[in-house]
C-alpha cells in the first residue's frame, strides 16, 4: 500500500515561504489555479510578501519550463536542484470541484479551494490521503468541518512549544557540587573566580549559559565560558556584579539576576550577538541603551548606535507619515524616547538646560533606521539594536544578522507573547529561530528575563490580564 500523500497548497503558504514547494520530502504538491491567481495579485511591490510571490512564481515557471508536457501528470520537484524534494508538482488544468454546503457556495477563493480538496480526496488517485496546507486557521477549521484533512505549514517552526526554548540559564540542584567536587579545580583571575568541572553535567551546558545556585539570600551566578564535550569538561566563571553602584552602567544598576546577567552579556566585547527575551517591564530596552551609550560615549568601542524595529501596528494603522526616514520611524520609537529620559535625567544642579544638552548629545549618537531599507547594507563598528524582534520572520532575521560587519554587535529584544505579524507564532518567530540556531556558538549570549521592574501595576497586569 502506498504511503504517498498529496498536499494542496493555499496561497498564504507560498507567500510565507516560497521554498515550501521543496519541503514535503517524497510527497506530491498540488497548486490550484486560484492560488496562482491570488499570487499574481500580490506580486507588485517591494514588500516581503511581493518578493515571495515573485520567487514562488519563478520556481513554478522554472520547473514547468523543463518539462512543459507534464502539467497534469506532474513534474519532479528535484529538477530545480532540490534533491531533498522527491515528489512531483501538479498544476490544476481543469475545473475540478465537489459540492459544498449552500452556506459555502460562491466564488470566494477559500470555498473554491475547499471544493477542489474535497474532489481530490474523493478521487484519491492512489494517494494515502489528500490534505490542505494553509496558514489560515479559519479555512483549516472549515475544512475539518467538512471532513477534510487540513494542517498548518510546520516546516518553518523551530519548536512546537515555546516552553522548551533555550532560556539562557540553568538552576543548579542541591547535589551539583557534590557530584563535581572530586574533580573540581578553582582559581582567581582578573577579579573573577573560575571553576573547572569534569563529568556528565558538563555535557548538558552551553557556551555563555548562566548557572544559578541559590542558597537562602546568597546566589552564585556563574557563566559557562568553555565546554569541551570530548573530555566532559566545562570552565565556569563568576559573573560581574552590576547590582553594585560602583559597577553602574550609564547610571543604571541591575535589580535582579536576570538584569545582572543581561548587562554581563551586553558589556562583553567577545559577545557579538545578544538576544533578550522577557515580558513587558523587564528592562530589556533600558539596559541595552545604557550599555550601548557607555560603549559608544565612554569606551568608544563602537562608533554609533543604530536602532530599528518592524513597523507592525498594534491597532489600525494611522496612515501616511510625512518626513524623512528617521522622522517616519519616530512614532514607532516611543520606547527609545521613554528610556532616554530615564538615562539623561539628573538630580544635580545643572538645571533644565544641562539636561536638554545631555539629551541632545546622547540622541546624536543614536540613528533610527527602517528595517525596510536594510538589504545590501553593511554596518562597521556599530551597536545595532533590533526592538520587537519577535515580529521578524526567520528570513527577515537572517537578512538583519548578516548586515553585521567588522566590530559590530547586534542585540535583539522581544516578547514572544506579543507577536503582531500575521501567520507568525511563537514557534516560527525569527527570534525563536535565532535563539535555537545560535545557542551553541561561543560568541552568542541569551537570557530570558523573568522579573518585571516597571511598576507594581505593570507586574500585576502581566500576571492577571
From TrEMBL:
Domain PIN: 5-141
Classification via InterPro entries: P-loop_NTPase, PhoH, PhoH2-like, PIN-like_dom_sf, PIN_dom
Record carries keyword ATP-binding: yes
Domain of life: Bacteria
Keyword Nucleotide-binding: yes
Keyword vocabulary terms for this entry: ATP-binding, Nucleotide-binding
PANTHER family named in the record: PIN DOMAIN-CONTAINING PROTEIN, PROTEIN PHOH
Family: Belongs to the PhoH family.
Name of this chain's protein: PhoH family protein
Amino acid at each position: 500500500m502506498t504511503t504517498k500523500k498529496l498536499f494542496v497548497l493555499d496561497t498564504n503558504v507560498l507567500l510565507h515561504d516560497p521554498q515550501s514547494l521543496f519541503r514535503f520530502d517524497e510527497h506530491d504538491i498540488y497548486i490550484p489555479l486560484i492560488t496562482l491567481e491570488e499570487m499574481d495579485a500580490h506580486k507588485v511591490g517591494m514588500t516581503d510578501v511581493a518578493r515571495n510571490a515573485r520567487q514562488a512564481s519563478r520556481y513554478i515557471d522554472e520547473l514547468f519550463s523543463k518539462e512543459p508536457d507534464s502539467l497534469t501528470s506532474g513534474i519532479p520537484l528535484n529538477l530545480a536542484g532540490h534533491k531533498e524534494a522527491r515528489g512531483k508538482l501538479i498544476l490544476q488544468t481543469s475545473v475540478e470541484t465537489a459540492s459544498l454546503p449552500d452556506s459555502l457556495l460562491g466564488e470566494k477563493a477559500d470555498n473554491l479551494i475547499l471544493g477542489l480538496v474535497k474532489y481530490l480526496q474523493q478521487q484519491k488517485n492512489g494517494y494515502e490521503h489528500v490534505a490542505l496546507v494553509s496558514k489560515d486557521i479559519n479555512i483549516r477549521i472549515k475544512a475539518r468541518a467538512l471532513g477534510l484533512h487540513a494542517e498548518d505549514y510546520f516546516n518553518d517552526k523551530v519548536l512546537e512549544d515555546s516552553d522548551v526554548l533555550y532560556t539562557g540559564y540553568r538552576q543548579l540542584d542541591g547535589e551539583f557540587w557534590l557530584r563535581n567536587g572530586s574533580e573540581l579545580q578553582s582559581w582567581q583571575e582578573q577579579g573573577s573566580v573560575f571553576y573547572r568541572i569534569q563529568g556528565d553535567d558538563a555535557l548538558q551546558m552551553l557556551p555563555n549559559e548562566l548557572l544559578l545556585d541559590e542558597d537562602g539570600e546568597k546566589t552564585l551566578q556563574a557563566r559557562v565560558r568553555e565546554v569541551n564535550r570530548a573530555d566532559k569538561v566545562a570552565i565556569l566563571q563568576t559573573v560581574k556584579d552590576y547590582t553594585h553602584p560602583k559597577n553602574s552602567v550609564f547610571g543604571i544598576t541591575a535589580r535582579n539576576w536576570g538584569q545582572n546577567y543581561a548587562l554581563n552579556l551586553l558589556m562583553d566585547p567577545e559577545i557579538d550577538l545578544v538576544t533578550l527575551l522577557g515580558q513587558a517591564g523587564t528592562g530589556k530596552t533600558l539596559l541595552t541603551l545604557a550599555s550601548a551609550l557607555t560603549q559608544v560615549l565612554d569606551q568608544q568601542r563602537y562608533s554609533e548606535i543604530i536602532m530599528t524595529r518592524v513597523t507592525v501596528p498594534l491597532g489600525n494603522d494611522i496612515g501616511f507619515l510625512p518626513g524623512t526616514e528617521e522622522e517616519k520611524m519616530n512614532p514607532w520609537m516611543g520606547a527609545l524616547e521613554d528610556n532616554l529620559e530615564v538615562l539623561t535625567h539628573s538630580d544635580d544642579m545643572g538645571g533644565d538646560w544641562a539636561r536638554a544638552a545631555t539629551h541632545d548629545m546622547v540622541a546624536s549618537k543614536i540613528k533610527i533606521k527602517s528595517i525596510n531599507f536594510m538589504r545590501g547594507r553593511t554596518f562597521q563598528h556599530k551597536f545595532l539594536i533590533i526592538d520587537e524582534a519577535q515580529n521578524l520572520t526567520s528570513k527577515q532575521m537572517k537578512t538583519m544578522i548578516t548586515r553585521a560587519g567588522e566590530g559590530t554587535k547586534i542585540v535583539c529584544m522581544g516578547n514572544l507573547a506579543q507577536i503582531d505579524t500575521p501567520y507568525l507564532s511563537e514557534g516560527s518567530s525569527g527570534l525563536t529561530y535565532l535563539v535555537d540556531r545560535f545557542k551553541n556558538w561561543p560568541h552568542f549570549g541569551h537570557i530570558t528575563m523573568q522579573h518585571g521592574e516597571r511598576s507594581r501595576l505593570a507586574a500585576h497586569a502581566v500576571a492577571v490580564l
